[in-house]
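Lecture 7, part B: from sequences to assemblies.

Below are the input chains for today's worked example.
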Amino acid sequence: MSQRQLDEHRGYLADERRTAAYRAALAEVVRPSDVVLDLGAGTGLLGYLACDAGARHVIAVDRGDILGLAHDLAAANGYEDRITHVQALSTELQLEAPIDVAVCDQIGGLVYDAGILGCFADVRRRLLAPGGRLVPASFRIFLAPVTFERGRAAVDFWAEHPAGLDAAAARALAANTEWSFSVGPEDVDALAAGREVAAFAADHDGPIAGSAVFETVREGRFDGYVGWFEATMSPSVTLTNDPWGTERFDRWCNFYPLDGGFDLLAGDRVELHLDVRPRLGVVSWTTQVADRNGHLHERRGSTFNGSFLTPATIESLVTAQPVQRTQRVDALERALAMIDGEASASDIADALEGQIGTVFASRSHVERFVHSITELIRS
Amino acid sequence: MDPKGAARGEPSFAFPGSVLVREVGGEMVLLNLDSETYFGLNRSGAEIVARLTSLPLDVALASLAADFDVDEEVLRRDIQDLVRTLVDAGLVDQSNDGH
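Predicted structure of the full complex, as structure tokens:
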């Protein structure tokens, strides 16, 4: 495990509010005969909470090697007999019988920036019994216009000629980036109270859009929006990363910059429209400010304008463009022709070795190519 | 194409609010959020669309004919084809009755 992975999971286990919310929700939702699916299980904590809530069995799924640790922790804590560990993407998971409850914490800072919606939609379609339950069950997302020094500095850094460079191109990307910040009330000054922008079920599988109107309560520089969510975990349990909430759990919030900022007076009207396309990974936020003189100012931010784009990536995005045949296609065909249930990955790499210097840079590149094929076709 | 807007000096075509536009290395990428589809325009297409969405049609045509060194009628026909494709894909609106 890397230090980053260790720190990430230490953060999850150290967060008592998160654990308490999942414990209370699962105690409310899980019934004694239930089979529970723990998606993105990590160290397996949510599965252990499901066992404590009385689950008959837990299937803990995670793509990562951390599942080995989850197995050890389950054994060390007496859950071994009630948990099956499966190393796979949940979308690749095949089960013999439907499950009763699915639990997941791939919620990110504002739900759609993590994987929960797509995973739960797939679980609902393929794996969940009729009447099955999801934890969390639904979400509300909120945004507030703020003065936020750290957020503004993250964007403006690129306009300050770092290392003597004209980095204006990077500033344009930064102004169209969905940022993540750990924030509390001491970090951000709200220009108006947060408003709910959208609400949706945890298995919502499509675009998310919503609008909100804010009337500023004080004068200040409008640097952008801070966004957070409230998850309905079960009928009586909620979980939130609201930066001003006294019961917030330890989770970052998203920040959407307002390019160039805007000086607001108390009583100004700010209108926001948020448009999220989870399938594309594109978030757009359009702001209209009506100032005291009756002038309307519009600014639009979008992660579409904040991503690196090169002719090669454009070619991959534009699906109507012809796919070019390259030497790699020949290598791929050769590799596929060798897959007969007998040849090993090493045999296939040996067969492609003659293309080092033309198609591949080295033996390790050949091996990576073959590995990517075996990953792709793994059942 | 018979733009009424040209008389007012306004562009005849505009990108709808549901279309995001980005120029990369002289080419143009358009994302139609309604259909969730990306479209790419090469340098020539990008230049034509940039002018159609920023200039009155007759001004855009004249400037393109001069810059691309082609007959204005041929250019007009090519642009009609391009505009039809873009309008059908929901990537531009005829903001001032350009046909």
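Note for the exam: The first strand of chain B starts at residue 13 and ends at 14. Keep this in mind when comparing with the next example.
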